Amino acid sequence: MSIDTGTERPAEAAAAPAASAVASRPSGDTPRAKRLGPGNKIPFGLAIGPVLLLLGWSSGAALGWIDPRVLSAPWTVVATSGDLVSGGELQNHLVTSARRALLGLGLGVAAGLVLAIVAGLSRVGEGLVDGPMQINRAVPNLALLPLLILWFGIGEQMKVITIALAVVVPIYMHTHNGLRAIDKRYVELAETLRAGRPEFLRRVVLPGALPGFLLGMRFAVMSAWLSLVVVEQVNATSGIGYMMTLAGTYGQTDVIIVGLVVYAALGLLLDGTVRLVQRRALSWRLTLDD
Description:
It contains eleven helices and no strands. The chain has helices at residues 10-24, 48-62, 74-86, 89-121, 123-138, 145-152, 156-180, 184-192, 197-231, 240-249, 253-281. Residues 1-15 have low confidence and may be disordered.
């Protein structure tokens, strides 16, 4: 037997407006959950910032707000780059700079990868390698430049080694972290299945370290270009940095801007290549960027 007091329970009273709202909504109009995260990708979204920067630069130059002696107008820079290309000067400097950067990048990646594997898969190796690498990470790479000049002179060898030292740190740090972050259950599973050393490296170590290595590659590419800018201003006779230094002596801001654009374009190209490889190699992971 129930007694009707004439009053609704609090839960029923709160649910009544929601129920009436649902009943009054058209059958095809279903509520959509708000999506968390950054949202859908914007077509050509990465170009928005550079385009706005270029528009501001062009507007300032056209209105006379920017002194051409301080910063040349965009159309002046375009004309200067055309002259440098037609004369073959830009291509020659670009080949020299690309060779230095890629050679230093290759040496640094190889050294960092070997050191990370030695330290990541062996406690003895970690004791021998990790301490010096942490010291190298703590010391600014360009602070070693006077010592490297003393040891290797001011030729190409010093420039390539300086770039390699800048690259080896991010490769080592991120690959080593990726190795140590491998789930221990996978290691135990490989031991249970009596997997050999080659199979363990191929099926457990490589997939586990790959995300860290590719992240380190992105930092390594930028580090290589930053070091290249500096070393090409140390007694160089060719290269984009030498071209910019010579232009600064004569106050040619348009040539300096051309060099900066070339540095930025090549850096973004290499970074984009690494990101493409990263997306393809790690396609099995679902992230906010997908």
